[in-house]
Design brief:
The complex is a heterodimer. Chain A has two domains: 2-221, P-loop containing nucleotide triphosphate hydrolases (Rossmann fold, 3-Layer(aba) Sandwich), CATH 3.40.50.300; 225-304, 2-Layer Sandwich (Alpha-Beta Plaits). Chain A is 35% helix and 29% strand. Chain A is built from eleven helices and 14 strands. In chain A, helix 3 crosses helix 4 (106-120) and helix 4 packs antiparallel against helix 5. Chain B has helices at residues 2-14, 17-33, 36-39, 53-67, 77-85, 109-132, 138-149, 170-191, 193-200, 202-208, 213-242, 250-275, 278-288, 291-295, 308-314, 318-332, 336-362, and strands at 43-47, 71-74, 91-95, 100-104. Classes of the chains: A alpha/beta, B mainly alpha.
Chain lengths: 310, 365
C-alpha cells in the first residue's frame, strides 16, 4: 500500500535519514522504533509530504507521491509529536476547525466529531477548553483530529510522550482498536519498546538514520537465537570481576546493572560454573542467576550496543 | 481560508479583551492628548496680595482679558494655589503693580503659553506707560484700537487655493495618529497567529489538509485586516458622531483607513517573517512600532520634524502617508484625486512588505 524507496534526507552536511526502505501493507500495524534523534520524525515528515526528500521516493499503491502529494494527503491521518491544537478553543471547536479544513461535509461533520470523541473517550469533555485538559487528554484530542476525515493510513509520531500511564494505556487501546476493528493501517513510531511490542505486527528498528533491522517480533527475536541474556545478582561488584567475565570465551557483552551484571553470551553450556569460580576468587557471592527471555530491547542492545533511552 | 478565519474568530469571541483594550486606548489617548489646542484657551486664575490687592487685580484682569485669548479670572490666593497643587490647573498668575509671578507645579506646555502671553502684555503695558509717562494707559490703548480699525496698510492672508486660511487642528491630527497607530498593535498581534500556528504544529496539520497555503495565509491576513479595520471604524465613528469631531468626507477617511490597514497587515507580515517565532515577534514588533509616529513627526505640528534621516525612514512606513491623507480630507476638503498619491505609496509598501514577509516565512527551517 505504502512504501519508501531509498528515502534520504540531508540537512547541510548531516545525513539524518539514509536510504530508508520500508513498506506498509493494507491493514497492518507497523512500528518504527528508535532512540531520540534516530530519524523517525524526519522519515514520517517525508512520508506525509511535509518534507521533501533529498533523494528516494515514497509510493502509494505504486504511484510516486513526491511530485503530487494530494493523493497521499487524502488517505493519511497524521498525529504529530507536538500538541497541534488551539489551546484557547474547546475540544469540540478544535475538531470542528480541523473537520472544516479537511472539507468534511457540514451534514456529516457533527456526526464525525461525536464519533471521534467517542473513540478517544472524551465525548463528555468536548465543551471544555484544551488548555484545561491534562497532557494525556490533549494527546487523545490530537489523535481525534487526525481521524475526522476517515484516513486509511494513520501515522502516529510518539503519541505517548510525557503522559501518565493511564492515558498511555488508553491511547494504545485506541490505536489497537482502530487497527483491529476498523482495519486502519498504522505506522507507529516510538522509543518505548513495550508499546511497539504490544501494538505492531512488524517492526523497523532505526538508528542514526538507518533501518538496522526489520521484521515481525519473532523474526527480530531470532536475531538473538544464538545468544542468552543472563542477569546476575551479586553481593557486591568489582571492576576486576567484570573484566574477568568479559574475558570468558563465551561472553559477548557485559553491562552493569543496579544489582550486578547483565551478560550476553553465546548459547550452549551454562556459564554458571565459570561465574561462580570467578566470583569466589574475588570473594563475592552470587545471589541470583537468571537466564532472561529476550525482548526487542535486547535486540536493540545487541544491534546498537546501547539501550533505547541512551 | 474560511476554517482559519473561523478558528481566529472563535478565539477572539471568547477573549475580546485585547481588541476592546486597544479601542479604549485609542479613545483615551485622543481625548487626553488631542485637546491640547483647547486647553490653551482654558481659564487661568490670577490673584494679587497686599493692601491694594483689589485695584491691582481689577486692573490686570481687564488688560489681560482684552489682549489675550486666554480667559483670566480673579480668585483668592489660597484657591489659586490649591488648584495648581491638586493639578486642576497647570498654572496661576500672581500679579503685582508692575510685575508678575507664575505659580506652577510642573512644566506643562500650557505654562509656556501662559508665560508668553502674560510676558507680552506686561512688556506692552510697561512700554505704553513709558511712552505716556502716566500709569493710566486706557486712553492710549483706546486711541491705538480706533486707529487700527482704519489702518493705512491692511494685510490679508489667504490659503494657497484661495479662501480662508485653515487653522491646523492638532486634536484631529492626534485622533488619526492614535487611531491608526494603536490599530497597528491589534493587527500585528493577529498576524502573529501565523507564527504561533507554525510553532504549535497546527500549520503543518493544515498543510496536510486540503486547505492551500494561499488559503492558510489569506485566512490569517484577511482576519487581521477585518479586526484592525473594525477597530478603526469604531473609534472614528465614535469621534465623528459622539464627540462631534468634524473629520470631513467619511467615505474618503474610511478608504484611507482601509488602505492603511492593508499596509499595516503587510508590515506585520514582514516582521512575522523576520521573527519566525511568536516570542521574537513580541520582542521586535512592539519595540519598532512606537518609533514610527515619532520619526514621522506625527506628534508635532506639520513641518516641525525636518531631520532628513528621520524623514527618509518615515517614508518607508505607511502611518505618515495615511495621517497626511486623512488630514488633507479633514482640514482642507481634499478630493479623491488629492489622496491618490499617499494611497499609491501605501499600496506599494503593502505589496513589498507582503512579498518579502511571506518569502522569509517560507524560508524557515
Amino acid at each position: 500500500m505504502l512504501e519508501t524507496i531509498k528515502l534520504s534526507k540531508r540537512f547541510k552536511d548531516k545525513k539524518v535519514v539514509d536510504e530508508v526502505n520500508l513498506y506498509l501493507n493494507k491493514g497492518e500495524s507497523v512500528g518504527l522504533l528508535g532512540p531520540n534523534g534516530a530519524g523517525k520524525s524526519t522519515t514520517i515528515s517525508m512520508i506525509s509530504s511535509l518534507l521533501r526528500p533529498t533523494s528516494g521516493d515514497v509510493k502509494l499503491d505504486g504511484k510516486s507521491t513526491i511530485k503530487n502529494s494530494s493523493e497521499i494527503r487524502n488517505v493519511l491521518g497524521v498525529v504529530p509529536q507536538e500538541i497541534a491544537l488551539y489551546e484557547e478553543l474547546s475540544a469540540y471547536e478544535n475538531l470542528k476547525f480541523f473537520g472544516r479544513a479537511y472539507r468534511v461535509k457540514k451534514a456529516i461533520l457533527e456526526k464525525r466529531i461525536q464519533e471521534v470523541l467517542e473513540i478517544v473517550g472524551l465525548k463528555d469533555r468536548q465543551k471544555e477548553l484544551i488548555k484545561t485538559f491534562s497532557g494525556g487528554m490533549k494527546r487523545r484530542i490530537n489523535i481525534a483530529a487526525a481521524l475526522l476525515h476517515h484516513p486509511q493510513i494513520l501515522i502516529l509520531d510518539e503519541p505517548t510522550v510525557g503522559i501518565d500511564p493511564q492515558s498511555r494505556n488508553h491511547i494504545l487501546e485506541t490505536v489497537q482498536q482502530l487497527n483491529e476493528t476498523r482495519g486502519m493501517t498504522v505506522l507507529y513510531t516510538s522509543h518505548y519498546m513495550e508499546e511497539v511490542e504490544q501494538l505492531c505486527n512488524r517492526v523497523y528498528i532505526m538508528d542514526h538514520g538507518n533501518i538496522i533491522a526489520s521484521g515481525t517480533k519473532d523474526e527480530l527475536l531470532s536475531i538473538l537465537s544464538s545468544e542468552d541474556t543472563i542477569l546476575v545478582e551479586l553481593s557486591n561488584r568489582s571492576d576486576t570481576l567484570m573484566e574477568t567475565i568479559k574475558a570468558l570465551p563465551k561472553v559477548l557483552q557485559v553491562e552493569e546493572t543496579s544489582e550486578g551484571f547483565r551478560i550476553i553470551a553465546r548459547k550452549g553450556k551454562s556459564l554458571l560454573n565459570d561465574l561462580v569460580h570467578a566470583a569466589d576468587k574475588e570473594g563475592i557471592q552470587i545471589l541470583n542467576y537468571q537466564v532472561e527471555i529476550p525482548s526487542l530491547e535486547d535486540v536493540f542492545l545487541h544491534l546498537t550496543g546501547k539501550t533505547l533511552r541512551d | 481560508m474560511y476554517p482559519v478565519i473561523y478558528a481566529q474568530w472563535v478565539k477572539d469571541k471568547r477573549k475580546p479583551f485585547l481588541i476592546l483594550l486597544f479601542i479604549g486606548l485609542s479613545i483615551l489617548a485622543t481625548l487626553l492628548f488631542g485637546n491640547i489646542g483647547e486647553n490653551t484657551e482654558s481659564k487661568v486664575d490670577i490673584f494679587a496680595s497686599g493692601p491694594e490687592r483689589e485695584e491691582i487685580e481689577e486692573k490686570w484682569v481687564t488688560i489681560l482679558n482684552e489682549n489675550s485669548d486666554i480667559e483670566f479670572t480673579v480668585t483668592s490666593e489660597e484657591d489659586a494655589r490649591e488648584q495648581v497643587a491638586e493639578g486642576k490647573r497647570d498654572v496661576a498668575v500672581h500679579v503685582m503693580e508692575h510685575d508678575y509671578r507664575l505659580i506652577t507645579s510642573s512644566d506643562m506646555p500650557n505654562v509656556q503659553l501662559v508665560e508668553q502671553e502674560v510676558h507680552k502684555i506686561f512688556t506692552e503695558e510697561a512700554e505704553l506707560q513709558a511712552l505716556t509717562g502716566t500709569e493710566n494707559t486706557a486712553d492710549i490703548r483706546k486711541e491705538v484700537k480706533s486707529y487700527l480699525e482704519n489702518a493705512p496698510l491692511l494685510v490679508e492672508t489667504e490659503a494657497i487655493q484661495g479662501g480662508e486660511l485653515t487653522k491646523h487642528d492638532m486634536g484631529k491630527q492626534l485622533l488619526f495618529v492614535f487611531t491608526l497607530f494603536i490599530a497597528m498593535f491589534t493587527i500585528g498581534f493577529k498576524v502573529n497567529g501565523i507564527n504561533a500556528d507554525k510553532v504549535s504544529g497546527v500549520w503543518n496539520r493544515l498543510i496536510l489538509s486540503p486547505v492551500s497555503k494561499v488559503g492558510m495565509y489569506s485566512g490569517h491576513l484577511v482576519y487581521s485586516f477585518i479586526i484592525g479595520f473594525f477597530q478603526m471604524v469604531v473609534v472614528l465613528v465614535l469621534f465623528k458622531y459622539v464627540f462631534d469631531f468634524e473629520i470631513g468626507n467619511f467615505a474618503m477617511i474610511l478608504t484611507i483607513a482601509a488602505v492603511f490597514t492593508l499596509s499595516a497587515v503587510s508590515l506585520a507580515m514582514l516582521i512575522t517573517g523576520i521573527a519566525q517565532t511568536p516570542e521574537k515577534f513580541y520582542m521586535i514588533y512592539p519595540s519598532l512600532l512606537p518609533i514610527i509616529p515619532g520619526i514621522s513627526g506625527l506628534y508635532m505640528a506639520p513641518g516641525v520634524m525636518d531631520n532628513p534621516v528621520f524623514t527618509v525612514l518615515a517614508d518607508i512606513f505607511p502611518l505618515g502617508y495615511a495621517v497626511e491623507a486623512m488630514l488633507d480630507v479633514a482640514l482642507y476638503n481634499a478630493g479623491w484625486g488629492d489622496i491618490l498619491l499617499p494611497i499609491a505609496f501605501m499600496l506599494l509598501l503593502a505589496v513589498m512588505y507582503m512579498g518579502i514577509g511571506i518569502n522569509l516565512g517560507e524560508r524557515r527551517k
